[in-house]
Structure formats: structure tokens, C-alpha cells
Structure to design on (328 residues):
């Protein structure tokens, strides 16, 4: 096996890829292309700038703090930073103060990543995953309400269709395709189906099995949300599916060894994530906060914790059933 490259650029690109658990620089580059395309289509480049700044700052902070070298090389200290960098310009209006906020937030995400790794990963073997992003994002968006130089405002596109208006109970064929890809793109807070398709391509390049899991997660979430009559405009934007996509990947193929039993377990976890998405939306809306990937994080923590029960009998070391580094 060739030794992993340790140059800063490769570490950053792997960090972008690790949002979907992929330790692949090409995949990470495609994810950045997906963010840039959404910026181009929406005429707003702040999220792309924020993504790059967040990724660089988070990775650099990990190096300056002398964090675990293998984890840095694998990109495990960059992916929460890039999500913070995308999220803050999405929910806070652009200003010079915003970029200061992004830099501090990205650095903070690295500290939180290290802290969670030292606690839940070391003690219970549960990966921190995007938990640091959720905690950092919530605190910074909530804090922005108290700062006059920061204007919190969500960017919600105006959509209109028979399904959204309640005329029909099932989206049109083109809407179903859009929902499927937006479910994937919204992990990066991108409500653009082309960006979602680019991201899926990046996943498939790194791992066909993980790509299939992402496809299944999006389909399961879409069917569940539509069948339960979730709020149509949220379904169409992909806001009921993105956490479920991560859950399907994490529980189905990343942190547990795939088997028929694990696949059923992942199906249950994916559907539960859709339920939790609805619950989080109700709980966080009065606070003026987005749910981010909190539904995925809670589901993943709960479903990964009892992983010993899913090991083959007789039980072998749990570490042998992990496909990727548990710091992710």
C-alpha cells in the first residue's frame, strides 16, 4: 500500500470528502465543484467562499494544535469546518463580520471535534461525525441574534407546484427526481439537484457500496416523507432526506460490517431519522435555528452504540467491524 500523501491540499480535499465518509481527494474536489455550481446557479458565491475558508481554517487549526496526524491526513478534522463554512453564509447575511465569524467557527469546530473524540469516541467507540458541526452551528447562529453586525436570515427559495399547493398528494415525476438529488445535496445545505448529482457521482467514484447506500437512503426518506404527508415545500427542497442519506451510509456500510441483519437495521435507522427530522424541525423552529444534521447525529449515536449486538457470534473485537476511522 502506498503511503498517504500528507500535503495540506490533499488533507483539505479529503476533509471535503469526509462529509460523506469518503477519504478521497478527487471525491472531495467534486464536492467543492457541487458547492460552486449551486453558488453559480443561485448567483451567490458566499457559500463557496465560506466552504473553502472553513475547510482550510479547520484543517490548519488541527495541524497547529498538533492533533492526531493520521486523522488530519485522512481529512477527519476538515469536514466539520467545511460544513460550518457553508452553513453560516446560508443563514447569516454577508458582511465583513460574517467572515470573521466563519474563521472562528471553523477553528472552533476543530476543537469540538477533538473534544468529542476524546469523550464519546474514546469511551464508547461512537464516532463524533457531524456532531461538532451541529453544536458549533447552533451556537454560532443563536449567538448571531445578539450581535448587531450579524443579520440572521434564512434563504428559502419560492417554489410552486400542484404538490406544494396541496392539489395532489404525490409529486410529479420531475419533482421526484429533483427531491432524490436534493436529498443528497442538502447534506451540504445545497437545494440544487445538479449539485446533488455531482455529489452522488463523487461518492460512487470513491465507493460503489457507499453510493448505493446513499441512493437507498434518499429513496427511503422520500417515500417515507411523502407517505406520511410531510410539509410538501420542505420535502421538495430535500429537507426531509439529507440526514437520512447520511444515516443509511453510516449504519449500513461505514461503521457496521454489511450483512442482511445490518441492512434491516440500517433501514430502521433511516426511517427513524425521517421521524426525528420532523421532531427537530418542530423543536428548533421556535428558537430560530435550523436542525442541520442533528437528526442523523442522534440516530447514528443511538444505533451505533449497541454495535456489539450486531457482531457475528461468537463476538470478535468491535474494531474489526469498523470500515473507517471512528473519529469520523
Amino acid at each position: 500500500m502506498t503511503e498517504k500523501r500528507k500535503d495540506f491540499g490533499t488533507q483539505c480535499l479529503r476533509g471535503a470528502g469526509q462529509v460523506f465518509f469518503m477519504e478521497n481527494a478527487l471525491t472531495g474536489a467534486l464536492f467543492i465543484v457541487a458547492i460552486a455550481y449551486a453558488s453559480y446557479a443561485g448567483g451567490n458565491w458566499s457559500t463557496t467562499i465560506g466552504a473553502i475558508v472553513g475547510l482550510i481554517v479547520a484543517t490548519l487549526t488541527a495541524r497547529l494544535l498538533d492533533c492526531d496526524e493520521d486523522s488530519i491526513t485522512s481529512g477527519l478534522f476538515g469536514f466539520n469546518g467545511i460544513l460550518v463554512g457553508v452553513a453560516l453564509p446560508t443563514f447569516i447575511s454577508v458582511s465583513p463580520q460574517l467572515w470573521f465569524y466563519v474563521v472562528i467557527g471553523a477553528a472552533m469546530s476543530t476543537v469540538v471535534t477533538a473534544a468529542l473524540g476524546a469523550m464519546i469516541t474514546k469511551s464508547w467507540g461512537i464516532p463524533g461525525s457531524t456532531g461538532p458541526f451541529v453544536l458549533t452551528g447552533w451556537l454560532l447562529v443563536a449567538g448571531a441574534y445578539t450581535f448587531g453586525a450579524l443579520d440572521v436570515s434564512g434563504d428559502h427559495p419560492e417554489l410552486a407546484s400542484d404538490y406544494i399547493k396541496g392539489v395532489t398528494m404525490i409529486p410529479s415525476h420531475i419533482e421526484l427526481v429533483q427531491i432524490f438529488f436534493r436529498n443528497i445535496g442538502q447534506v451540504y445545505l445545497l437545494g440544487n439537484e445538479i449539485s446533488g448529482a455531482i455529489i452522488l457521482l463523487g461518492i460512487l467514484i470513491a465507493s460503489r457500496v457507499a453510493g448505493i447506500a446513499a441512493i437507498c437512503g434518499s429513496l427511503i426518506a422520500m417515500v417515507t416523507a411523502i407517505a406520511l404527508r410531510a410539509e410538501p415545500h420542505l420535502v421538495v427542497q430535500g429537507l426531509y432526506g439529507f440526514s437520512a442519506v447520511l444515516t443509511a451510509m453510516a449504519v449500513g456500510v461505514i461503521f457496521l460490517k454489511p450483512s442482511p441483519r445490518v441492512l434491516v437495521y440500517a433501514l430502521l435507522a433511516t426511517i427513524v431519522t425521517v421521524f426525528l427530522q420532523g421532531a427537530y424541525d418542530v423543536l428548533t423552529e421556535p428558537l430560530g435555528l435550523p436542525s442541520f444534521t442533528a437528526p442523523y447525529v442522534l440516530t447514528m449515536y443511538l444505533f451505533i452504540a449497541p454495535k456489539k449486538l450486531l457482531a457475528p457470534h461468537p463476538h470478535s473485537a468491535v474494531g474489526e467491524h469498523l470500515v473507517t476511522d471512528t473519529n469520523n
Q: What stands out?
A: Residues 1-5, 313-328 have pLDDT under 50 and may be disordered. The chain is about 65% helix and 0% strand. The CA atoms of residues 180 and 294 lie 20 Å apart. The radius of gyration is 19 Å.
